[in-house]
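Recap from last week: sequence in, structure out.
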Amino acid sequence: MSELYKTAVIGDTASVSGFAAVGLSVFCETEPERISKLISRLAGSGFAVIYITEPAAALVSDTIKKYRSSKLPAIVLIPAIEGNTGDGMRAVHEAVEKAVGSDILN
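Predicted structure tokens:
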């Protein structure tokens, strides 16, 4: 039997509250220290994917970097309700380039 993994979403209330409707675990948090502790707690609690809004991710970039080389959790940046900063797409490009040796998305 395969293990069931969980998915979380972290960010400001307006940006993440709707994700609860599709069954994701939602964490409304905007304080850097609390976000860092939350990511660590989720990583140790069976969460395979953590979506985090770009503004929240910018506050805890060092914490996110610690998990970049880990198999799980995958930390994926998503736009906040106020818009897209481009950080999420840059992270995807970097991950693809690292995986295949060149940026095939351009």
